[in-house]
Amino acid sequence: MSDASDTSPDEIRRRLIGLGEFSIQKSYYPELREKLRDLERFRALLDRSSDAILMLSVPEGIVLDSNEAAKRLFERLGADSGAIHISDIMPIECTRSIEASISGTGNGDRIICRKTGEPGTGERVFEIVIDLVEVEGVSFAISVARDVTKQTELEMELRRSLEEKDALLREVNHRVKNNLQISVSLLSLQAEAIADERARLYMIEAKNRIAAMSIVHEMLYQSPNLGGIEFDAYIRELAPSIVSAFGLKPESIGFRFETEPVLLDIEAAVPCGLILNELVSNAVGHAFPGKGKGGPRGPSGSGTPSIAIRLVTVGKKAPEPGNSTADSLIREGSPSDIHCELTVEDNGIGMSLPIDESSGAGLGLKLVETLATQLGGTMRVESRGGTSVRVLFPLGRKGYR
């Protein structure tokens, strides 16, 4: 028989409460313990991160939580138990950027922060990424700060190295240009002392070839991009100077330019410059009779002699046969889909085909063909109411657009 106290109200209440606690433990505690273990594992993972991670209130910017890396970086986080604002641990410039970020969208914003370390340790550079998250309707900002001091120092060192190499290359181009110009001046003086007209012409042609190379180095020296020169600008500078080198007034021959912006590196620009020099020199020296007797004349003996220079690119892939005048020049299996076509055409007396390689014009065209082969390209000559020479070469080989 049970004691009467076993059925007292207090005993019944105690048993009911115990039964409830047992029921709660049985049904909820395992789940709570598992969630607690998950939180502990996650916390351990955050504390192992070398990035400083902060949780901030939005939009106040109060530090709500931080990992161990953040506490090592910002000593006050580990020492002060009170409310800490982001401005208490960050430089003012960083604080303003972070406040602006968490007041806006804040998703993926990147901020570069510079923080002065302990005496003797120098400045440290951090990249801070801000993201906004929402938990049960409450917004928080997650700030992840990564130390990029070493990367920044390496970038600065590489930048200094590139600047030094840039200056060195400019100086090399400047000195090469000066040396070539000295050679041009010496050849000019020598040409003036030669009585034989044919020999003098050869001297002028040699001088023009050196001048063509000199202009390449001069433009490289002056260009903001040492990787190459704008060849269309080069054409407009070189062509009139060739006319003057033959002792003619620049306006005695009319030039017509049809050029696209094409950037060539030095390996392509030098042979292309020599090709242009040869073609224009051949036109000035052989296409127009009457030099020295009132100036050069057109094929009918009257009218203004003219030279047309065309520089264009031919599609991203070789055109189908018959669709372009450049089709027959494109080699099968060429290394580039983009080709450059340089054409020099005059309205002079024309030339006999096949070309006599022993003549002055023939020797010049032989040089053009050799240079075109050097570029991986080809040459084609036509003579109908004047002379037209087309040189086609792949841009991907030694040049670029």
In short:
The protein is α+β, with helices and mostly antiparallel strands and 401 residues long. The chain is built from eleven helices and twelve strands.
Q: Overview of this structure, please?
A:
With 401 residues, the protein is an alpha+beta fold. It has 3 domains: 49-147, Beta-Lactamase, CATH 3.30.450.20; 149-226; 251-401, Heat Shock Protein 90, CATH 3.30.565. Helices cover 47% and strands 20% of the residues. It is built from 11 helices and 12 strands. It has helices at residues 9-27, 29-48, 68-73, 75-79, 92-103, 149-192, 197-222, 231-245, 266-287, 360-374, 395-398; strands spanning 52-57, 63-66, 109-116, 123-135, 138-147, 229-230, 254-259, 263-264, 306-314, 339-346, 378-383, 387-394. It has a 5-stranded antiparallel beta sheet with strand order 2-1-5-4-3, sandwiched between helices. Helix 6 (149-192) packs antiparallel against helix 7 and helix 9 runs antiparallel to helix 10. 29% of the residues are buried. Mean pLDDT is 77; it is low at 317-336 and 397-401.
